[in-house]
Amino acid sequence: MKTFTTLLCSLLIIMSISTLAQVAINTDGSAPVNSAMLDVKSTNKGLLLPRMTVIERNDISSPATGLIVFVTDDNNFYYWDGSAWVLVAETNPTGPAGGDLSSTYPNPTVKKIQNNTVSPATPTSGQVLKWNGSMWAPQTDENLDGSPAGGDLSNTYPTPTVAKIQTQPVSSTAPATGEVLKWSGAEWIPQSDAGLTLPYTATYAGSSDALNITHNGSSGHISDFYISNSSNTSSALNVRTNGTGEAAEFKIDNFTNDNEAIYVSTNGTGRAGYFKQSNTSSNADAVKISQDGNGEALYVITTGDDNAGYFQVNNSSNSTDALYVTTNGTGRAAYFGGNIFVNGAYSGSGGKYFLIDHPNDPENKLLRHSCIESNEMTNIYKGRGKLRDGIAIIALPDYFEALNHPDKREINLTCVNGWSPLYLDGNIENNQFIIKTTAEGKAEQEFSWVIYAVAQIMLAEGLVDKVLVLCPSLT
Fold first, then answer.
1. Please, what is the Cα angle at 208 between 202 and 213, to 5 degrees?
2. What sign results for the dihedral spanned by CA atoms 354, 357, 361, 363?
């Protein structure tokens, strides 16, 4: 079937050529236009003419006038004009000129300017083209005839002097090399360009940088703001914005520069930096620090005698955290390399672990221990002792009874190196308790004891307004 279809198409093309003496190449079956011997039509393909190098083109034997080829050496079309190959792009226009031009190409005549007629009259020396109401015509320039100049100019034409700029007078003082025109308050006068004249105020309504300073030197600051008056309480630099972008951006583009993008220091008694969000309806952070590298996002160190960091919520109705630390990584949310003091209630939703040196290999190993947890504020006291003549008096810390609830004290006794019936003789009094044995027991029995007591200075009882917690315990 495919072979039959091909033969049929070929037959139709041959019939079209022989009957119409025209050829149409397309995909929609349309006939060629009447004036075309070859009509090629497509909406997604082009016509590809013979492509060859200069050497191959020059080897064409007896090229016909009008023959066109595409030379791949310079990617240009060339045609044979009967004696030489001519670049198609270099062909000069021919025929009648139009628009503001008249006569014929390649030597047309300018007949109009912006569609307004130009007089064909021959000009004389010194004349200019002036509009006479109907055409541009050669005329004498009356302003160059020695008449007085006006406006911002003085003296006479044709050699006037600029006496003003935008109606503001210009001084006649001769300038020196390197000087610029500066406004003195009364006139533009030549002065040294030693910097801005203070106080300086300007307004800019453009879309590029209002001030752009580049420093190509090997040292020195690009700017230095300094208040030398010790009684001046204003800022040395005040940066504000009424737009939606940052008030200031500090960036280091040199990847080998290991210095700070911003360095803030003070020799006074106040803060080196102060950040405040004064919009009470804003939920944005007063300070946001982001780190895409491998170092700390925030590194705080002090060599003085005060805290390296201080976080405080001053709003008594604010129930959020003064410091919130979280991590999406696999490391710790926080690491404290020293003792921790909590002046208030301490709580946690996970395990409470601490690391200590391994006693058998303290240089290379650590032991991971957990804190003991309870549903109550439990204090644990323990020790070992030995009966003397069947009795032992155990002294406790002098704060024991003041700290622990009298009805929430549990004492456990365990015999060591043998057994005897041990018992408590009364309750804990005067921060001590007494252990005895029966007549059948050993008068010199060794034992260990453990006391579990619940502190009575719990927040729920309202006895104090804060609790001191040390974890892990060092006592």
1. 70
2. positive
pLDDT digits (tens, 9 = 90+) for 83-140: 999 988 655 677 888 888 888 877 888 988 999 998 999 999 878 888 999 999 998 8
How many other C-beta atoms lie within 10 A of the C-beta of residue 125?
4
Q: Whose CA is closest to 192, among 201, 182, 202?
A: 182
pLDDT of 310 reads 80
Give 222's contacts (C-beta < 8 A, 6+ positions apart). 213, 215
Cα 452-453-454 angle, rounded to 5 deg: 135
Both structure tokens of 20: 């119409």
| Region label for 182, one of left (φ > 0), alpha (ψ between -120 and 50) or beta (otherwise) | beta
Give me the DSSP letters along 32-65.
PPTT-SEEE--SS------EE-HHHHHT-SSPPT
Q: Which two tokens stand for residue 367?
A: 């032991």
Q: What pTM did the predictor assign?
A: 0.38
Task: Give the tokens for residue 80.
Answer: 């044979």
* Cβ atoms of 333 and 325 closer than 8 Å: yes
| DSSP helix/strand/coil, 406 | strand
The strand pairing partners of 161, in sequence order, are 154
CB burial readout 10-28, b (16+ within 10 A) else e: eeeeeeeeeeeebebeeee
Summarised one tens digit per residue, pLDDT across range 400-428 is 898 888 998 999 999 999 999 999 999 99
The answer on pLDDT for 462 being more than 90 is no
Phi and psi angles of residue 245, each rounded to the nearest 5 degrees, phi first: -100, -175
Q: Confirm if 409 and 433 have CB atoms less than 8 A apart.
A: no
Q: Which of 415, 417, 410 is nearest to 447 (CA)?
A: 415
